[in-house]
Amino acid sequence: MNVCIIGAGYVGLTTAAVLAKLGHTVHCVDENEQKIAALKRGDVPIYEPGLAELFTDHQSRLFFHHKQIHVEADVIFICVGTPADSKGKPDVSYVNRAIADLTPHINEKQTLVIKSTVPIGTNERIYNHFKNEGKHIHVVSNPEFLREGSAIFDSLYPDRIVIGLREDDDRSLSIMQALYAGIHAPYIVTSLSGAEMIKYAANAFLATKISFINEMARLCEAYGVDVVDVAKGIGLDGRIGPHFLQAGIGYGGSCFPKDVTALQQMAYEQNVRPYMLEATKTINDTQLNWYVQKIKRTLGHMSKKRIAVLGIAFKPNTDDIRESPAVSLIKKLHAHGANVIAHDPKAVLHNVDVKQANTLEEAIAQADALIVATDWDEYKQLNWAYVKQMMSGNVVIDGRNCLPREAIMNAGLNYVGVGRG
Ligand code: NAI
């Protein structure tokens, strides 16, 4: 099929690479001229494992356009951003602009797929917008569940494919199944709004699991219990499951914070009090300060102390720093007078007056304390005896409960985790 993707970000580019791999011809459109110029040169503007390789392997089927919508496409995807506005509501202006750009060109033979995470009712509104223009457009709500850092794998092997359709729209389901032929996953077919709600509910639930274990970590800390044992002990219960039970400095990224807040706002609009979402957000909003207090107690004071912060990205295997708790941590330590030196294998610190080391050694050398803020594999695999030699101090703070505690202690370093007794 011939596909047009509007919005060449993390979701748009991953979708493009995977659809090209499945044999489709894909035209990516973005309003960011530099991004399109880079893509045309063969440079992938984001770091996502396996993405650059797929782009190279299937370059004959991938095309990039600045603003110019590919009007002959069979299927048009909208993958533009939906960030939170100043009140925490989803800003759908990028989606609205993409729809306005499409309006003069789109025809009834085409299928319009909304992949961006949009507030409940948006897909219906889009359908009605075209209807008012005299066009009965096949609108499909097909939310995305990929995780940055494993986006290609998640798109090739998704747990499920959610398709939201209008009641009388049988054609669009077969189009989507043909488009995704080669990807084996159960289909959940629901209404347009049902698909929108599934996306928000999934992210809210995952964020809630993280906030739950973070609350347990605070309790474990108070009672001298190891939250890692607790997470294992509850996670092996099939009804609970082991995922998203790693206590740490809180969730971040471009999705969880904004999607939890968005769902909360949508609940208020309907006069439904979202007690659970409020608690999830409150725990996350207070987790970092709770941990910074603990760091302060551990180090006595922070003023002029050289602190190596390992990790800037909001999670490993990505260069994305949107809403990254690591960045918030760096800012807080800096505000406490610490001499912070940050490191990340891929992410770059912007607009923060803090030094970023080029190598891990440079970050660790002479550090009074070392804090792991993002659980990249290379931090987990450090040689702790060597780290001890390099540092001036002896405190290793594991903000993600991801480091080998025994090995660190055996190297003569003090280990401080999150809720580890
Ligand atoms: P992004 O910010 O990485 O990319 C969005 C792209 O759209 C940018 O390159 C921007 O220049 C472009 N754009 C905006 N308006 C445009 C327009 N009118 N015409 C052409 N291009 C336009 O966003 P990301 O992270 O890919 O997210 C996209 C959507 O997918 C959001 O709704 C997000 O919530 C959702 N999502 C994101 C996931 C993630 O892990 N990043 C996972 C699942 C869903």
Poorly predicted runs of 5 or more residues: none
Mean pLDDT: 97
What percent of residues are in strands?
A: 5-15%
Helix-strand string: EHEHHEEHEHEHEHEHHHHEHEEHEHHEHE
User: What is the multimeric organization of the chains shown?
Assistant: single chain
Query: How many helical stretches?
Result: 16
User: What is the total domain count?
Assistant: 2
EC number: 1.1.1.22
Pfam families: UDPG_MGDP_dh, UDPG_MGDP_dh_C, UDPG_MGDP_dh_N
Enzyme class: oxidoreductase
InterPro entries: 6-PGluconate_DH-like_C_sf, NAD(P)-bd_dom_sf, UDP-Glc/GDP-Man, UDP-Glc/GDP-Man_DH_C, UDP-Glc/GDP-Man_DH_C_sf, UDP-Glc/GDP-Man_DH_dimer, UDP-Glc/GDP-Man_DH_N, UDPglc_DH_bac
Descriptive account of the structure:
There is one protein chain. The N and C termini lie far apart (56 Å). Helix 5 (122-132) links the parallel strand 5 (111-114) and strand 6 (138-141). The protein is globular. It has helices spanning 10-21, 33-41, 51-57, 93-102, 122-132, 151-156, 170-179, 192-223, 227-235, 256-269, 275-299, 325-335, 360-364, 377-380, 384-390, 405-410, and strands at residues 2-6, 25-30, 62-66, 75-78, 111-114, 138-141, 161-165, 187-191, 306-310, 339-343, 355-356, 369-372, 395-398, 414-416. Helix 8 packs across helix 10 (256-269) and helix 10 packs antiparallel against helix 11. The protein is α/β, with parallel strands linked by helices and 421 residues long. It is built from 16 helices and 14 strands. The longest helix has 32 residues, at 192-223. It has 2 domains: 2-185, Rossmann fold; 206-416, NAD(P)-binding Rossmann-like Domain (Rossmann fold, 3-Layer(aba) Sandwich), CATH 3.40.50. The structure holds 1,4-dihydronicotinamide adenine dinucleotide. 1,4-dihydronicotinamide adenine dinucleotide binds at residues 6-12, 29-32, 35, 79-82, 94, 97-98, 116-117, 144, 146, 148, 254-255. Residues 6-12, 29-32, 35, 79-82, 94, 97-98, 116-117, 144, 146, 148, 254-255 line the site of 1,4-dihydronicotinamide adenine dinucleotide. Residues 308-405 form the UDP-glucose/GDP-mannose dehydrogenase C-terminal domain. NAD(+) binds at residues 30, 35, 82, 117, 148, 258, 322. The active site is at residue 255. Substrate binds at residues 145-148, 199, 244-248, 252, 315. Belongs to the UDP-glucose/GDP-mannose dehydrogenase family.
